[in-house]
Fold:
Amino acid sequence: MPNPATPIEQKRLTGNPGQRKLPDPEQVMAVTGGYREPHREIGPAGRMLWDRVYQMGKTWVAETDVELLLLTCKQLDRQIDLERIWQEDQTDFHIMRQLLELEKAIVANLGLLGMTVDSRARLGLAEIKAQTAYEKLMSERAQ
Structure:
């Protein structure tokens, strides 16, 4: 599996190490962020996710992400319904399979929205770094 594409912003910050031609900054479309109300009805669990995504990802979740976020919120509402059905009859293999597939889809969509550790690292919003033995010792001493 190939490495994911590096965002253009990250290439600009590092000085374009691949020396490939980058789009002219004047011609790049600016994407506006900020909170938006859902334009379709979502359930209580979906509404909590909607608000949480905008609270945590307000700097990178943009107007163009609204449909994906709405779909993910609806998937979460559907997951709650399927879990309720599963609790009533835990012998139904089909419901369990649907639940597992739906959970995979939710995690994938959250990754696309920048809500997972690896997706934030890819976006340049966080750095995944192992703690050295010295740093671990110093943090234990500070406590």
